[in-house]
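Possible race condition, two jobs.
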Amino acid sequence: MNTSFFQELLNTVAEQGRALLPKSLFGDEPERGMQALVDALVSGRGEASGVAIAQQILNHYKILGTDEKRAFFRYLASAPVLKPDSDAVLDAAESYVSDPSDAALARLQSAVDSPRQEFFRRLNLAPGATAEIVAMRRDLLRFPKDDPAFATVDNDLRHLLYSWFNRGFLVLRRIDWQTPAAILEKIIAYEAVHEIKGWEDLRRRLDPADRRCFAFFHPSLVDEPLIFVEVALGDEIAGAIAPVLNEERKSAALREPTTAVFYSISNCQGGLQGISFGNFLIKQVAEELVRELPSLKTFVTLSPVPLFARWLDRVRGDDTEGLIGEEDRKILADLRDPEWTERHGDDEDLKGTVLALAAHYFMRAKSERNKPVDPVARFHLGNGARLERINWLGDTSDKGLRQAHGLMVNYRYEIKEIEKNHEAYANNGTIAASRAVKALLPSQKGKGGEAGSVLTLPRPVIKSGSDNQSADSVTGNELKKVGTADEG
């Protein structure tokens, strides 16, 4: 109610403010007037006129074509009125060097403060502007990231969004079958990991006594979830997603569930890419669940491996590490069979080879920034989770087979180990992993096991889909549109 009243007040201010401004700022050709509006918003001082100009900018932006939006962002990057005064910056810097006092530092900070950030702050005065600015950044991210103009605007915009969407402003809400339909429709639309196939499928995930769903909301986006997580409660480890998604609804809850499985985490707002809420979400949901169900002891994910198949194809084509021998190539050829899961799914050689390569992928393969190549791994390991187990044929859907040859992974959040794991990963790049995962790693033969030495893939005999994993973990699956939770 308060938010609605405030928005109505801003609408009134915007309408009254229009009467105070030149009519030339409110023409019908937005591509010609946007620069004038930007300049007017930055240079103006009146609150009412600022709200009116901000509203007009947002109205015009909505009807811009792709080329006009590109020109708009380039103007934001290049306009002199949106850049710090270089003479003032130099003068303040020289003053600080000669006299590094608090007053001189404050003057320098004021001189380098970006007028472009002030533009977005004033733009945010318009009714409903926060959602519009998030959508604006979503458009910006579609343009080439290596273009200096777009990067300049995004740096300022992302800096502001980090502040506006600070964890202290977010509200955790449980999503259930009684949640308003408008929000439930968005849960269906935003699900990024395992497609929700209509209302009955959604009810299967929300209504049963052993299912939970939680989402973060922001006061300025009342009915727009920022990120949500789906949870299955139980007392055993799940190594495959199909039983979790297709299980019949239970009318009675487990008396004392021991395991919470985070089987899908989806970021909802493309304009908030790189501003991660997932770490806060998992920890707060775990706290909420323990308050409700003290019997819960184990918290894990059942996560996708979105880039494994692509990585394996690249290694098979250019194996600079000597990772794959001729025998392995013959075994891996079975993956090209469209029906390989039926014909070769029980082949122990194929299973052992793929699991060993997957262990190398998670533990040793690095990006150019010396981080794990898998974005989901970066997200969970960075949050202090442990790589618990790699599940053979955990996801046999078309998407799961295409992206990961059916593999899924469990990341375990051990409350007592989270901080230690996070610090070791952040400071030294150390990947916390169970003994079962480490045992899958290919052995290295050569001088000190250095990079470039010959690698030998183990041939473990695995009797079932989970026998190669430690028995004291849990299950769950995860999340996000690739790349949204971690920029590393």
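Job #2 (started ~2 s after job #1):
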Amino acid sequence: MAMTEFLAYVPIFSELPDETLSKIERIGSCKTFSKNDVILMEEESGTALFVIMNGKVKVSRTSTDGREVILTILGEGDFFGEMAILDGLTRSATVVAIEDTELFMIQRNDFMTMLHEHPEISIALLQELTKRLRAADMKIKALSLKDAEGKVATVILQLADEIGKIKHGKVEIDKLPLQQDLANMAGTSRETISRTLHSFAKKGLVELDGNKLKILDYEKFRGMFI
């Protein structure tokens, strides 16, 4: 896939003409990270916006007692680093590659210039940030009010929305995060994750195949836990 084709696939650039996409390609640069590489550290200064060309990353923060709290998993076409770019403050989270990952990077000054020259990017960015805020609100509510099963289901639905592939009402999550990472997302233990996933499988709600998980009836599953 040509770079301009890829950029057109990214939500915040999807409405731009080919000429502008070519300009973005010229001002950006690519960088590759290996699995487990730290891409960004919480509290460091932010100088670039990152778009995932291929691979996956986890976005996390450290709790007051030193535990890792995973906020989200991002995949191809997703972007991160926008908060520090917009407000000029330090990074709000740590980002780590959970598989070999290639990123397209745009420096802060270049990105801010693009926002002034192309207001449609600003509108698309606001729409994406609003979507993330709604998802965060849903997760906060679920993790504070629901039982262990509801917490695990919320994380599965989050992953389905972010990295899942839907076909005929079924959603397949390829390369499910490690159970400890799922536990860090759900605010529970690895043992609870394992027990709950197998319970869902016994109830016919999901299928487990190694590190793949398939939600057999997405709308039914969502209706049970949202």
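The domain at 3-136 is CATH 2.60.120.10 (Jelly Rolls).
Logs attached separately.
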